TrEMBL record:
Top-level lineage group: Eukaryota
Any single Pfam family the record assigns to this protein: adh_short
Gene3D superfamilies linked: NAD(P)-binding Rossmann-like Domain (3.40.50.720)
Protein name per Swiss-Prot or TrEMBL: Dehydrogenase/reductase SDR family member 7
Transmembrane segment boundaries: none
């Protein structure tokens, strides 16, 4: 009997290690990708609001969602022209989607007064909102910790954290008042929201803050059962923002050597697929990145001491020391 138990446990760990070494997402998300609810069935007929939809992951999410039957998509960001481009490309991806199914709703996330009005407009247009995917964020700058001015920290927290918290509060209150209906808040954090990343402050701390806000909220909502919170943690994701821009010589950026992308950057499409699968299955948190990111994440989470030693060792190779 004991042998059997040990064998089962060993087999379980072997499978986990296997997934970790081949998959591009955490084990639980991977299981749901294979055996869970699919995107098409969970999002059918839903009204989904994506912020930060003018490029990168947000754009990828819109383009993945447009494949779903009867879905209504609201795309938000600051730049209206870019949103119109995303809408056009979405309509090209699925010719049977009606113009009216995609609402372009531009606004500036740090203009807090626009949040309630934006939600109002959505409810007026589609009659409801089911899912908010908050993806708007700025990277800020790559800088030395001691050199960034405090104004940068404040501005980045304003955009990446406070504006998002304000918008989610408004939407959460709307969900709470819609008795008997399901609501879902999904927030795009980052692998940088789970462990410190050198030269990436204050971006990294803003992502940490999101976990504090939304993990706490998830506990507060436990009793409600009809409102869900998902925090998504992608690693580096390519954006096609440069694809069609020209370089100084007039060559398309895409065709130059510069864009030979490293193999371990995830495409926006794959990232969107994983994010939507996670939301479809109401997962609490999902990590997604190609090798070798995730084994490090697990190491950092479960073996901090080993992770610390290993990362100190690796920093020797990747970081130029300036003493
Ligand atoms: C396109 O959109 C229509 C209408 O929402 C939907 O029924 C269909 O499944 C979608 N097809 C594809 C291939 O994306």
């Amino acid at each position: 009997m004991l042998d059997l138990i040990v064998a089962v446990i060993l087999a379980f760990f072997a499978i986990c290690v296997g997934i970790l070494l081949c998959g591009d997402c955490d084990i639980w998300t991977f299981m749901h990708l294979k055996f869970g609810k699919d995107i098409a069935s969970r999002f059918e007929g839903k009204v989904v609001w994506v912020t930060g939809a003018s490029s990168g992951i947000g754009e990828g999410l819109a383009k993945e969602l447009v494949k779903v039957k009867n879905v209504k998509i609201i795309i938000s960001a600051r730049r209206k022209e870019e949103l119109e481009r995303v809408k056009k490309e979405c309509l090209e991806l699925n010719k049977s989607t009606k113009q009216e199914s995609i609402l372009v709703l531009p606004f500036d996330m740090v203009d807090y007064d626009s949040h309630a009005k934006a939600l109002e407009k959505i409810v007026k247009t589609f009659g409801k909102l089911d899912i908010l995917i908050s993806n708007a964020a700025a990277m800020g700058q790559y800088a030395l910790w001691e050199e960034a001015p405090i104004s940068t920290d404040k501005a980045l927290f304003d955009l990446n954290v406070f504006s998002l918290v304000n918008l989610n509060r408004i939407v959460l209150n709307y969900f709470k008042n819609e008795r008997g209906r399901q609501g879902h808040l999904a927030v795009v954090s980052s692998l940088a929201g789970k462990l410190g990343v050198p030269y990436l402050t204050p971006y990294t701390p803003t992502k940490f803050a999101l976990h504090g806000y939304f993990d706490s909220l998830r506990h507060e909502l436990r009793k409600m059962e009809r409102i869900h919170v998902t925090v998504l943690c992608p690693g580096p994701v390519e954006t096609n923002i440069f694809d069609n821009s020209m370089t100084g010589t007039g060559a398309r950026f895409k065709d130059t050597m510069l864009t030979k992308r490293p193999a371990n950057i995830m495409t926006a499409a794959r990232c969107a697929e994983l994010c939507l699968t996670s939301i479809a299955n109401k997962l609490e948190e999902s990590w997604m990145a190609p090798l070798p990111n995730l084994p490090f994440m697990y190491l950092a989470a479960y073996q901090p001491f080993l992770y610390s030693k290993l990362s100190a060792f690796m920093m020797k190779f990747f970081v130029v020391d300036e003493k």
